[in-house]
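Below: protein 1.
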Amino acid sequence: MEKLTIFTPTYNRGYIIRNCYESLCRQSNKDFLWLIVDDGSTDNTEDIINSFINEDKIKIIYHKQKNSGKHVAHNKGVLMCETEMFVCVDSDDYLSVDAVQIIHETWPNIENDKSLAGIIALRGEDAQQAIGTRMPRNIERSSILNLYEKYKFKGDTILIFKTAILKKYLFPVFEGEKFVTEAVVYDQISQKYDMKLVDKVLYLCEYLDDGYSKNILSVHKKNPKGYMFYLTQKVENAKKFRDKYKAVAYYIAGCLGIRSIFYYRDCDYKLLKIISIPRGILIYVKPIIKSTLVKYKLVKF
């Protein structure tokens, strides 16, 4: 039986999902299965996936659900998963040729370590060039949160989790909303577990115009409950005063972003939510100013 599930949530990506499929067919190690949860696509995704299944090059499991959001699709994938390892690869992205092999080679180092939730490796535009910085030197393990905050890593990663741990950390679901940031789960896992760091590019990607990454501000406005749940969790998890002050400032920026005084009033940190207002406003207006400058070609970023 396979040890690794490569999970792909998809929605109307029939025009590009073949790139992901072909990268999986090129893997030097075929010891994996591809689990696809289709979030109610209305294009020809189902026909395309069926054609892949008929080619019989790799093992594929396909499940279609009512359109509910990527986080609900992720929950479904985790609950369906029967392998020891689980990694999410979006339908518009793909893996380096040796990605599965490197994951399997690393697995024995973490399999029986109860303090490790999985593996972190790098994303890149190609197999040599990481998006952002490399992994911190001489550091073999870190929580996801500390990688960014303590070791000042800047960039994107691929996260390979122990499935048994992911099953304990499903995404919250809010009625009427279709998005919850992945950081909600990652921050929860960071409170108890470290990850094994691998300084290699395993995940290749580019950000499309119809993806979440390029439309995140509008996504937050359409899904305020999930967004504010994430920001509230950041405040609650912060231990030091400086970190809590920063988290409350981002919470205030979030309130401004979704245009809600309700959430501001609901914040329990009475003193902090007053002294954090200036920083919160700055956090809120900074991307607006940047966007305006780029729009009118006054500056390049």
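Below: protein 2.
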Amino acid sequence: MENLLAKRFRGYYPVIIDIETSGLKSETDAILEIVAIFPAMDEQGYLYCADKIHFNVHPFEGANLDPKALEFTGIDPFNPLRGAVDERDALTEIFKLVRKYQKNNECNRSIIVAHNATFDQGFINQASQRCNLKRMPFHPFVSFDTASMAGLMLGQTVLAKACAQANIDYDNKEAHSALYDTEVTAELFFYMVNKLKALGGWPV
């Protein structure tokens, strides 16, 4: 049977990503939490969640830990109960799953989907270079930004307001957990792609 997802985004497999970090600068600050959600497409061409993976991450040696960023996220990087792993191990496992789902969906490359995607993409690119990970499954600079998509389709760019416009529950108390934010971003992405499909916007 023809794989519709392979045709939907020009051969790209979209992976919904969210990270929490120890600051705003990808060159000096650490990834502390990362989640990836992997979509599938049903026979009618509608997206849904097929799988997800979640890691708490040790800050790399020498990383800047901005107290304001840690206060904002509520993350204690050195709490042993986090069960954190090194960033190389986290990215390696995520990339393995990315390639698996990319292959299963007959896509030729993957693409990061995130809210304000250049932020997440910059940190992932920088961490991949730092870990000397040669086989990067994601496009290095193209991404799908749900903030831009929501601005176009819903008239809102803030995640909470876009979700309200789409009638997606959003709990501010849960926000800034990578797992929660990724799940909400995925739901918003699926809503917008599926809404466009329902309106006849794909296929053209």
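The mean pLDDT is 95.
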